[in-house]
Amino acid sequence: MYLSKKKRIRRALLVHAALFILTFIILLPVLWMILTSLKPTAETLKFPSTILPDNPTIQNYLAAWKNMRLGTYFVNSLYVSLMTTFVAIVLGCMGGYALARFRMKGEKAYVMFILVTRMFPAVVFLIPFFIMMRNLQLTDSFAGLIISYTVFSLPFSIWLLRGFFRNIPSELEEAARIDGCTRLKAFTRIILPLSAPGIAATAVFCFILAWNEFMFANTLIMSDSKRMLTVALVASISDFLVKWNELMAGGMITTIPVIIFYLFMQKYITGGLTEGSVKG
């Protein structure tokens, strides 16, 4: 028994050591970005480069916000990401609920088809989307970008929320309908509140996908005033000089909203992913 306990402790230590090393490797680029964002320009151009800044400063953040006009692009990205999340959640809730509660022919094939749409890389759809949005006169508009992002967010939203809705006993709705509730009222007053963890997990996924997207934002938006934050960061790179400290500061500014959004929804995410994604 003593040897068995010793083996378990040794195995646990090895697992935790491996996880620590893996986490460090994953976070190393983020740590490098933070340290570079605190260096003056002279230190970023010094060779050999130093890891820690000799004279740390936060002026890079102020310079990046002002020189790159991140305030305007920040608002643009926030608006498009929140609208994409809202539309994908509303449509995903309706689609997921319908697939969870109503029996139809070919349901499994349809659910599989929804997942298959996520298998194709987004670049495959770039030219067709551009032609379609041009014909609809939605290029260089937030609406066209929101529609494009929603198309890619919706399949996963429907699939995840369907699994979560199926975990909620249908007897709760039946009891509400006996008390006089319509199906819509039972859905909005009972199912949706009980589905908060699943909806939160799905919302985080949709928001991050829209916030970090670059390719469609760079293709469909032409006006400088309507640029997304990710496109603005790339546009700040000139042919002759790259201000790495300001660029890294801009990258940190871009990352902060995602971190805040994730931390705010964190208590819902674990339950939503584990309960909503395990049942087909």
Question: Notable features of this structure?
Answer:
mainly alpha, MetI-like fold, 280 residues
Find the CATH topology: MetI-like fold
Cα-atom radius of gyration: 24 Å
Average residue pLDDT: 83
For the record, the CATH class is Mainly Alpha
Unreliable stretches (pLDDT < 50, length at least 5) are: 276-280
The CATH homologous superfamily is called MetI-like
State the end-to-end CA separation.
41 Å
Count of the separate structural domains: 1
Put simply, the count of helices is: 13
Which percent bin holds the helix content?
over 70%
Query: Helix and strand succession?
Result: HHHHHHHHHHHHH
Envelope shape: globular
Q: What structural category do the secondary elements indicate?
A: mainly alpha
How would you summarize this macromolecular structure in one to three sentences?
This protein has 280 residues and is an all-alpha fold.
